[in-house]
Amino acid sequence: MPVSVLFVCLGNICRSPLAEAAFRAEAARRDLDVVVDSAGTGDWHVGHPPDPRARAVAVRNGVDIRHLRARQVAAADFDRFDHIVALDARNLADLRRMEPPGARARLSLLLDHVPGREGAAVADPYYGDDRHFDAAWGDVAAGARGLADRIAAESGG
Ligand code: 4NP
Q1: Quick check: CB of 143 below 6 Å from ligand 1?
Q2: What are 79-110's pLDDT values in tens digits?
Q3: Options 3.40.50.1760, 3.40.50.2300, 3.30.310.50, 3.10.320.10; CATH of 3-151
Q4: CB-ligand 1 contact for 43 (6 Å cutoff)
Q5: Average pLDDT over residues 23-49
Q6: pLDDT tens digits for 122-135?
Q7: Most buried one in 6, 31, 94, 98, CB count within 10 A?
Q8: Domain extents for the chain?
Q9: How far apart, in whole angstroms, are the C-alpha atoms of residue 157 and residue 143?
Q10: Is 129 noted as a catalytic residue in this protein?
Q11: 3-state SS, residue 30
């Protein structure tokens, strides 16, 4: 059975599509069987492709996110996914408010999976420039490695 992971940020056009792509690439490198998606807590960008600056930083790091389209997180996601991973503390608080009782998904913050960075946010690069998107990529790539370590350990690999 694949392990399913949903990454959640605010708009689903910058950080969570990058996290989705970084984690999918990391899982492929390790031959981990995963199902990966991303969503936003907000609805402003539903149906939109990722921000051009996010598409550019993805290309600089060897992944293509052009095909992704933003969607809003839904109550059903809490039963569809094993892990729902928030990009910052506000996203996590919003998810905790939505969480149905007895939900299947385990909630966490992406950087909780990076030793020494527990509790830290992937800073929102939306109002920033390419340097902020490069920093966001560094964070999501580190988080993807840490989360892949945890999932591999839990599945006995
Ligand atoms: P994201 O970035 O949450 O990383 O996708 C943002 C995208 C859009 C907005 C804020 C953050 N916005 O306010 O529209």
Answers
A1: no
A2: 999 999 999 999 999 999 999 999 999 999 99
A3: 3.40.50.2300
A4: no
A5: 98
A6: 999 999 999 999 99
A7: 6
A8: 3-151
A9: 18
A10: no
A11: helix
